[in-house]
Amino acid sequence: MVELQVGDQTVRYDRDATARIYANLISGWAEKCGCVGCRNYLAQRDTIYPPAFRELLDRVGIDLEKDAEVVLDGPVQDGLYHYGDWFFFVGEMVTIGDSVVGNSPCLEFWFTRFGPCPKEFQSEPHVAIEFGADFKWVIPESWDSDLRPALRRSERPRTV
Prior knowledge:
Layout: E1 2-6, E2 9-13, H1 15-24, H2 29-33, H3 36-48, H4 51-60, E3 69-75, E4 80-95, E5 101-104, E6 107-112, E7 126-136
Antiparallel strand pairs: 1-2, 2-4, 3-4, 4-7, 5-6, 6-7
């Protein structure tokens, strides 16, 4: 494994093992999910990441088009919408650290041992690059068009 330090976090990674897993994945979470937030993400995925972040993903063997999960939190400011995402790789944490690293004003990321890990990585030591980012809304549907209304108390299933 190769050691990599970003901010005050240090990880070890196995690029070849990671790339082999990604080569066998058919798609990422966003394609499987298909919700309005994921569709907005997919419409701009190829252009939203800064070059330094793309280089980091490539360095550890991550296929940018095969995210572990994408989460739309909702609108923030200036017409932007907050997203969270995880990309896993074969590796281990060496130094956990406290830092969040930003490559642009609208994207910050960090290494973590937690998150929605795809089953393909679960038999290996694994770490994730988790990020929080603010992206534009680029599709014609409203960000909340597929949200379900909350159930009224009388409509909620009864629990015993």
